[in-house]
Amino acid sequence: MNALRKIHRALIPGGLLMDMHPIPPSARAEIGGKSLGEFDDAEFMKIVSATEAPLADGSLFELETEVEFDWLQRYGSAEELIEDASSWEGCSMPAALQARVREAEPPLDIWEHVVLRRFRAVQTEHDPVPGTGTCPI
To answer: CA 15 to CA 8: how far, in whole Å?
Structure first.
């Protein structure tokens, strides 16, 4: 919540916050549109849920709109994909998937279903008074 407060203070009154992140189902590795298997992202989805809760309470930001879509990220080699995926917090590549990725002929893709949400900053008692640049307290 502290990060959201900092973002809220940094925005002009009524400013916009864009939030994009993966949503279920789990991310998967693909080759030519054919699935090689899913990542284990259960821990990551818990992080996403904990991050979304303060946004959902509406005290700092109000949801205006959202859109869901598929996101593909292309890799030129198995090693590049494996190295990148190893740095993802809360997500791991099962050994069987890693073996299939190593055997696959590049290019390889990561497929994720994502949501993009637009929030508008809600006026609070700590916001500057419009047109004055001063805080009312």
So the answer is: 8
Binned average pLDDT, 10 residues per bin, the chain of 137 residues: 86 93 95 96 93 87 96 97 95 97 97 96 70 50
Q: Say what the pTM is.
A: 0.81
How far is the C-alpha of 80 from the C-alpha of 99, rounded, in Å? 14
E strand or H helix at 126: none
The secondary structure of 7-36, three-state, reads HHHHCCCCCEEEEEEEEEEEEEEEECCEEE
What CA dihedral angle connects 47, 50, 51 and 52, to 10 degrees?
120
Q: How far apart are CA 37 and CA 64, in angstroms?
A: 35
* Residues 6 or more apart whose Cβ sits within 8 Å of residue 55: 4, 19, 61, 63, 117, 119
Helices 78-85 & 95-103 angle (0-180, nearest 10): 150
